[in-house]
Design goal:
about 25% strand, seven-stranded antiparallel sheet, 21 strands
């Protein structure tokens, strides 16, 4: 007989697990120092069983972070199996193991009932600074991009690893902020153990393994059944876009639907080779956005956990732009990773046309600024970003200034102006930048800013879709490409740029593609 076959009890337990991780995610978001975490929600939190399988994720966070965290936790649980004690905390920002670049630090807290390991709480958040060359695509390899933290114990039996902590502090420009964010992640993990123990005591459970087995079994079974209801075969999609250096990237996806096994294999063979620029995407990050795209078209109402992810497999040739090999530079991996869903949606258009969208603006436009305050004190801003328009849906327009697939919010300009000497002249919709069609693509936005400073300053800006707009689908028109202007002159960006005190920066973000031909055409 199946454990927890009582649907009511299982639903109560499930709701409690989601409540625990979601409450801790919001607490982490509130206490984080980095504005991109605190204001934009660029984070992920999840609960794992003792085997490192993701059981429940928080109801906030980004697909890239959460699905990377699922893979990272499984690897870390295996790596430290048999060597964990109460009070241990594991930390890493290994790009190939975790979330794809050094700016994202993953923390895994083992959860114990007495001396027995019962599971893990994991979190990944974006850090303002990790040393090295900072935000940008100009580094020649990953080691130039910042401090690399291999999987290590930040705490061992409740005692801080002072050597590791001092090493981290000494290698970043904003040690207080980094220490604050590490503390926020630590606090989130410590409190989960107590909450989980209370839940297990209420329901007379020794651990969560039985709950985990049942939730993951049901999730996997439901996902396989949803795949079995589709049309079998292999379907192809292709997307093209430009990157900050002007390099043109091609992503090709072959989506094989095996209705007998209830599995989907997405193969990126034929995509561009990895780049010398820092736009490369590790397979873990490509997998995260692939599974998100497939599941959003398949059964988005199901829990996102190791069970529902298991029937979706991803392959890509080693050395390709979505499976780069060490030590390729990866800081701007989102510039490619956020395009991963586009060819998949095109491939699935002939399978589930009502559930896909036209191409969107693609990756968020990201900016980081370094300069001096009026006092002469140096500052490094957190990464901030601006979205373009989302692709149109079959019967609805694409939302404006909404970047599918990341899901993060924008940092309010008031927050940015309060944290550094920046002023925004305007931030407004870019009318008619979305592609025309039966359903219109979402519009991008126009943003202009400058620094109030007497000193030169540095800007790293990462933009895409300057050379061509997002494609429409089913006869829909393409969205408008973006424009990046300095003092009114169009430019492209790669790496850090030295700016004059009175320089004015303007972004015109791309629009989304339209869906369906206009009736009178």
């Amino acid at each position: 007989m199946m454990p927890y076959a009582d649907a009511v009890e299982l639903e109560i337990l499930w709701a409690n697990l989601i409540g625990i991780v979601s409450e801790r995610a919001r607490a982490l978001q509130r206490t984080a120092f980095s504005p991109i975490v605190r204001e934009a929600g660029d984070l992920a939190c999840a609960l794992f069983d003792r085997r490192g399988r993701m059981v429940a994720q928080a109801d906030t966070g980004t697909p890239g972070h959460i699905n990377c965290l699922a893979n990272a936790a499984t690897s870390l649980a295996e790596m430290f199996r048999g060597s964990l004690d109460p009070g241990d905390v594991i930390v890493t920002n290994d790009p190939w193991l975790s979330a794809g670049h050094l700016f994202d630090i993953t923390m895994l807290t083992p959860l114990f009932f007495g001396r027995e390991l019962t599971g893990f709480f994991g979190s990944t958040i974006h850090y303002t600074d990790i040393g090295g060359s900072g935000l940008g695509t100009g580094a020649r390899d990953a080691h130039e991009e910042g401090l690399w933290i291999p999987p290590l114990k930040l705490y061992e039996r409740g005692k801080l690893n002072q050597t590791l902590f001092r090493m981290i502090e000494a290698n970043v420009r904003t040690p207080k902020a980094v220490a604050g964010d590490l503390s926020a992640q630590l606090a989130a993990g410590h409190s989960v153990a107590d909450l989980l123990q209370r839940l297990c005591r209420r329901h007379r459970l020794d651990d969560i393994e039985g709950i985990s087995d049942e939730i993951l079994r049901r999730s996997e079974e439901a996902t396989r059944n949803a795949i079995r209801s589709l049309k079998a075969g292999t379907f192809h999609g292709e997307s093209r876009f430009d990157t900050p250096s002007g390099e043109s990237i091609v992503l090709k996806a072959a989506v094989n639907i095996d209705t007998r096994a209830g599995e989907i294999l997405v193969d990126f063979a034929g995509s561009s080779l990895q780049s010398t620029q820092g736009i490369n995407c590790v397979l873990n990050f490509a997998h995260a956005y692939t599974t998100f795209a497939v599941r959003s078209c398949l059964n988005p109402e199901l829990p996102n956990n190791s069970g529902s992810l298991a029937p979706i497999r991803v392959t890509a040739p080693e050395g390709s732009i979505v499976n780069c090999t060490y030590p390729a530079p990866v800081t701007g991996r989102h510039l490619v990773g956020m395009y991963v869903p586009m060819p998949i949606l095109k491939a699935l258009h002939s399978v589930v046309p009502g559930r896909v969208l036209a191409e969107g603006s693609g990756a968020i436009w990201t900016v980081q600024i370094q300069g001096k305050q009026a006092s002469g004190e140096s500052f490094t801003s957190s990464m901030f970003f601006f979205s373009g328009g989302m692709g149109a849906r079959e019967h609805k327009p694409g939302p404006s200034v909404t970047c599918y697939p990341t899901g993060v919010g924008a940092i309010p300009v008031e927050t940015l102006e309060a944290s550094m000497p920046i002023v925004f002249d305007f931030k407004r919709l870019r009318p008619n930048s979305g592609g025309a069609g039966r359903s219109r693509g979402g519009d991008g936005q126009s943003v202009q800013f400058r620094l109030l400073t007497e000193h030169p300053w540095l800007m790293s800006a990462m933009t895409t879709r300057l050379d061509g707009g997002a494609e429409g689908i089913d006869g829909g028109r393409p969205g408008a490409p973006g424009q990046f202007l300095i003092n009114g002159i169009s430019t492209k960006s790669a790496g850090k740029r030295l700016m004059k005190p009175d320089d004015v920066v303007q972004f015109e973000t791309p629009g989304g593609g339209g869906y369906g031909a206009i009736a009178d055409e």
